[in-house]
Amino acid sequence: MELIDKLNWRYAAKAMNGKKVPEEKIERILEAARLAPTSSGLQPFEIIVIKNQEIKEQIKPVAWNQSVITDCSHLLVFAAWDTYTVDRINYMFDLTNDIRGFKNEGWENYRQMLLNAYPQKDAEENFNHAAKQAYIAFSQAIVAAAFEGVDATPIEGFDPAAVDKILGLREKGLRSAVLLPIGYRKADEDWLVDLVKVRKPMEDLVTVIE
Ligand SMILES: Cc1cc2nc3c(=O)[nH]c(=O)nc-3n(C[C@H](O)[C@H](O)[C@H](O)COP(=O)(O)O)c2cc1C
């Protein structure tokens, strides 16, 4: 199947059947998220993979009781940095230098520019910027899941403060941004499965400037 066919196959499943997704598929979905581009390459988020059924049961009531939270195989929580700090910025720049094996003046100047700009900003503004980056990885995970023939339901319908508490995220300097249950559709119980996908026409989406 071509990528576009797979994107037409995917939909935000409203019911899942509890069947387990093979770990190698989950690993590839996570790898796609890891490979996502982010602003300045900072990857300012972590992904919590919840296999534990009791934790899923705790999250369900604070996620509008959506059944996919407990009927999925793996529940991914995209948790963004609560702010940018000097250490967090340095970590990614040092990692780049370590992996590439050299230091570059332009890159070091860029590091200083970020160090002089980001940590001083309001934490909420920084979190919102970090959460946007998490959404890029989230989107790549959705596409990768479709590629693997696995369902993934994007979920913003939850109480982030409550999820943060259940997972102890604030203590780790993280805040939940968005959830992604991964599993298999329960077609016979899903009102959405056979409905035609609705997207606005290309001409209402795209403006070409020649
Ligand atoms: C960021 C985001 C948050 C969403 N939150 C929910 C949600 O909480 N519950 C749900 O059932 N669907 C949720 N959706 C699914 C959208 O309603 C769905 O993607 C959209 O209607 C397009 O339909 P399709 O994904 O089935 O093609 C969310 C989608 C996105 C991208």
Describe this structure in words.
With 210 residues, the protein is α+β, with helices and mostly antiparallel strands. Helices cover 45% and strands 12% of the residues. It has helices spanning 3-9, 23-34, 53-59, 68-71, 86-100, 105-117, 123-147, 160-167, 202-205, and strands at residues 45-50, 74-81, 151-152, 174-183. Strands 1-2-4-3 form a four-stranded antiparallel β-sheet, sandwiched between helices. The longest helix has 25 residues, at 123-147. The radius of gyration is 19 Å and the shape is globular. The two termini are 32 Å apart. 31% of the residues are buried. Belongs to the nitroreductase family. This is Nitroreductase family protein. Residues 9-184 form the Nitroreductase domain.
The profile of the biggest β sheet is: 4 strands, antiparallel
Low-confidence runs of at least 5 consecutive residues = none
Level of helix content?
A: 40-55%
Count of DSSP helices? 9
SSE order, one letter for each helix or strand: HHEHHEHHHEHEH
Radius of gyration: 19 Å
- Spatial arrangement of strands, main beta sheet: 1-2-4-3
Overall geometry comes to: globular
Return the structural class.
Answer: alpha+beta
- Average residue pLDDT: 97
The oligomeric state of the chains shown is single chain
> What's the number of extended β-strand segments?
4
The CA-CA distance between the termini, in Å, is 32 Å
Bound ligands, named by name, code or SMILES? flavin mononucleotide
Beta-strand residue percentage: 5-15%
Pfam families: Nitroreductase (PF00881)
Organism: Winogradskyella litoriviva
InterPro entries: NfsB-like, Nitroreductase, Nitroreductase-like
Domain Nitroreductase: 9-184
